[in-house]
Amino acid sequence: MTGVANGANTGTKVELRTSYLALIAGLLAYYHPDDEFLLEAGVMTRDQLIAEFQQFVALAEATKTSNLAWRTDVQAERAGEQEVAPKRAGLKAILTGRFGKSGTTMTKFGFEPAKPGVKTPLVKTTAAVKARATRAARSTKGSVQRQEVTGNVTGVVVTPVTTGTPEPPVTAPVTTGTPGPQVAAPLAPAPKPATSS
User: Fold this and answer.
1) 113, 112, 133, 129: which is closest to 121 by C-alpha?
2) Which residues of 96-110 are buried (b: 16+ CB within 10 A; e: fewer)?
3) Dist. CA 154–CA 181, nearest whole Å
4) pLDDT at 148
5) 17 partner at 20 to 30 Å CA-CA among 39, 103, 113, 119?
6) Quick one: pLDDT at residue 5?
7) Cα 101 from Cα 197, distance rounded (Å)
8) d(CA 12, CA 18)
């Protein structure tokens, strides 16, 4: 495994590990075991340096292995959470029905009790103004206001109930525009009941 040395310790962990492996390979190829290097930390032989570099590479490999295990554990945790979350939510609904959504007993089961909503006077006033504006815009009427609405019904066929020969139905006139006063069409007189002599 070879690569360019990464002295600034930037880039990926793979690149950093690769750079130390390349350094070890270069030292083994070009220097003898007892060759010495004068460093800021002191004089060290080739084999001493290689031993420390190999120790770092081993630590990096352990981190890689533990990271892969951690990722596997995270995936297992997510799958487990998807399995139990609906059951927890269902149990919360049952407990809420028994103790109330604002009941402090919910904390004993790990649920936060619902906080009652507090509306300021400004919020209440604004809501009332908006409700009146919506009612006016939609021409919404209450039960008492609907009773005040009166008028004539037009376009209705009236069929009188008579005995004897049926008369043809009388049709009320259909008007367009603003309805004015209307006079009901006279109905045919009902036949007089027969009297016995």
Assistant:
1) 129
2) beebebeeeebeeee
3) 11
4) 76
5) 39
6) 42
7) 85
8) 10
pLDDT digits (tens, 9 = 90+) for 3-29: 444 455 556 888 888 999 999 999 999
- Cα–Cα distances in angstroms (integers) from residue 1 to residues 15, 50, 54, 65, 124, in the given order: 10, 15, 13, 18, 72
CA distance 105 to 109: 7
Contacts of residue 35, defined as CB under 8 A and 6 or more positions apart, other chains included, come to 45, 46
In three-state secondary structure terms, 44 is: strand
Phi, psi of 192 (to 5 degrees): -75, 145
Encoded tokens for 59: 């630590």
Helix (H) or strand (E) holding 160: none
Q: Say if residues 11 and 3 touch (Cβ distance below 8 Å).
A: no
Which residue from 19, 21, 2 is spatially nearest to 11, judged by alpha carbons?
19
Count Cα neighbours of 138 within 13 Å in the Cβ-side half-sphere.
Answer: 9
Rounded to whole angstroms, how far apart are CA atoms 66 and 90? Answer: 36
Contact call for residues 5 and 16 (beta carbons, < 8 A) = no
Under the banding of pLDDT at 50, 70 and 90, the label for residue 173 is low
Residues 6+ apart with CB under 8 A from 153: 172
The answer to whether 33 and 51 have CB atoms below 8 angstroms apart is no
Q: Scanning the structure block, which residue is given the tokens 């950093």?
A: 16
